[in-house]
Amino acid sequence: MASRLINGLVLVVLGAVLLMNTAGYLPWTVWDAAWSYWPVLLVGLGLQIALTRWRFPGLALAIVAILILGAMNPYTRSGSWRPWDWNRRGTPGLPSYRPTENAKEWSVPLKPSVSRLELLLEAPSLDLEARGDSGLNSSRPGTVLSAQMSWDKVEPETDAAETRGGETLRATMRSRAAEGVDGKQFWQLALNPSLATSMSVSGGVSNLTLDMSSVFLESVNVASGISRLDLTLGLSGKETRISVTGGFGNVTLYVPEAAGVKITLTGVLALNNDFSKQGLAKSGGSWLTPDYENAATKVDLSMTCATGRVTLHRSSWD
Q1: CB–CB of 318/235 below 8 Å?
Q2: What is the pLDDT of residues 117-145, one digit of tens each?
Q3: Contact at 8 Å (CB) between 128 and 147?
Q4: Residue ranges of domains in the chain
Q5: Under a CB-based contact definition with an 8 Å cutoff, are residues 146 and 139 in contact?
């Protein structure tokens, strides 16, 4: 009974902080502040181990404490509560929340030697939409990626460099927020589907919508205090590895029914850990489709978060 009460309290506090984020009464960098208190998790774990006999929920209470400390932290510096100044433009294909100013475009030309793309994305608070665009091959030379970026306070840095003898192009988009300065980024990417692509995202809060149905996505690694990943994949005939780590993770995965799927969840509170209705069976610490080892297209999802949810959709489209 006590365990259910504490787990419910974790979700209530988490939901309250997120509600205040989206309403504009707490800056998104509250998650960076909360993550700085991660040693509290060790204290909670130690208490839980020491008081196992009494079933003391040390980790769950530690999460609540971290969220409260993170929510208090920003205002010890700023000294005031104020809503963010967002302008709802509702532009089709872009996030509904847009900053009132500051925008730029960035594109990277495609060289004949390049066959792989490595994307390194970093921002304290990021809304990202990415999709494949075959139109990037229509020009000569073609284009590796095309980006539209907007931000409220801190301009993102961009860089592109060839590695591995020119075979791989590493593209970096990074927002370095100054101490005490809150900032939010809105990025929209069009990716060349002829390139094998890997993506790494890090920051405090990551809200990602990726339509990779026409792109071979080798891997996507998300390391954020709080992350939402909405990922659509096609039949690539190869393996895609997905890794999500942090405090809270919410993953929605759309894959063709013919793809083999493996899901491994590790965390204090897994809000959904039964995928039998989607045709997966438990094997060790993972859920797998029966034909996983023999499937041409494989999707391997690993999520390690304090709490989170995975929603899987398998359909006949390819």
Answers
A1: yes
A2: 999 999 988 999 999 999 998 877 899 99
A3: no
A4: 2-77, 97-315
A5: no
